[in-house]
Backbone:
């Protein structure tokens, strides 16, 4: 966030006098990275407005919980990393320098926003934290989720709601029906497994934020294709099916959650 040309929204616009005061606040300024410290020092000497990563825009008298910024792609910010990775792949695969070096997508793993029970402005927020770090669903159950994509509490909304394919009109020029049809056809043809990872919370007591959803791609890309094939994971008891059950006289259709990883997957 200390780089020039950053695209940011919902951060407080700070003038140089206020920025100077922030740089002189002991116990506050020292908590930033050296890059942000240098950015703030420079901003305290320039006219106009700048931002501090710890100061979001005030909304109705309170700092907004929905600050956003666009990160510069790592391969653009540090092209040497991409170059070395591609060169290594060319050497390993014996691809000539003048031939394309393709990197096919081997998996698509959705992320789920989960939240524990909470209260927002006196209103109870329903919990949505029943998902394991990794779940597998067959296509019918998976697309039930894709269509409605019930989400947990979001800073950009009033609470639990739907952030799925049918809610993305402002961000997606493709009609939802065409988008979903393309998705299901591609998954059938490529035999992609319907995996998803957890973000936010696992159960009401374990907060994980994005630690797991960022870790799973690192784990997945180190697994061989046969290791992450759903039928094999189930056969090796690395995935277990979730069954329907009854609780306090009510039927709970838990089987819609599909399969979850077991201890065997970890070891």
Residues:
């Amino acid at each position: 966030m200390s780089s020039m040309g950053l695209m940011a929204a919902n951060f407080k616009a700070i003038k140089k006098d206020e920025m100077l005061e922030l740089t002189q606040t002991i116990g506050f300024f020292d908590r930033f990275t050296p890059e942000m410290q240098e950015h703030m020092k420079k901003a305290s000497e320039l006219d106009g407005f700048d931002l501090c990563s710890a100061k979001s825009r005030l909304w109705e008298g309170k700092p907004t919980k929905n600050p956003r910024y666009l990160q510069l792609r790592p391969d653009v910010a540090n092209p040497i990393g991409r170059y070395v990775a591609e060169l290594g792949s060319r050497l390993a695969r014996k691809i000539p320098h003048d031939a394309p070096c393709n990197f096919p997508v081997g998996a698509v793993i959705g992320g789920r926003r989960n939240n524990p029970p909470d209260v927002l402005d006196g209103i109870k927020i329903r919990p949505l934290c029943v998902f394991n770090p990794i779940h597998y669903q067959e296509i019918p159950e998976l697309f039930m989720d894709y269509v409605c994509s019930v989400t947990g509490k979001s800073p950009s909304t009033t609470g639990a709601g739907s952030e799925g394919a049918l809610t993305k009109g402002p961000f997606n020029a493709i009609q939802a029906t065409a988008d979903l049809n393309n998705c299901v056809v591609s998954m059938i043809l490529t035999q992609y497994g319907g995996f998803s990872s957890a973000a936010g919370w696992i159960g009401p007591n374990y907060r994980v934020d994005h630690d797991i959803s960022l870790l799973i791609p690192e784990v997945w890309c180190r697994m061989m294709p046969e290791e992450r094939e759903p039928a094999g994971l189930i056969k090796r008891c690395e995935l277990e099916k979730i069954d329907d059950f009854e609780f306090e006289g009510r039927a709970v259709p838990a089987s819609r959650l599909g399969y979850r990883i077991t201890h065997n997957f970890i070891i």
In short: The radius of gyration is 23 Å. The mean pLDDT is 86. The chain has nine helices and 16 strands.
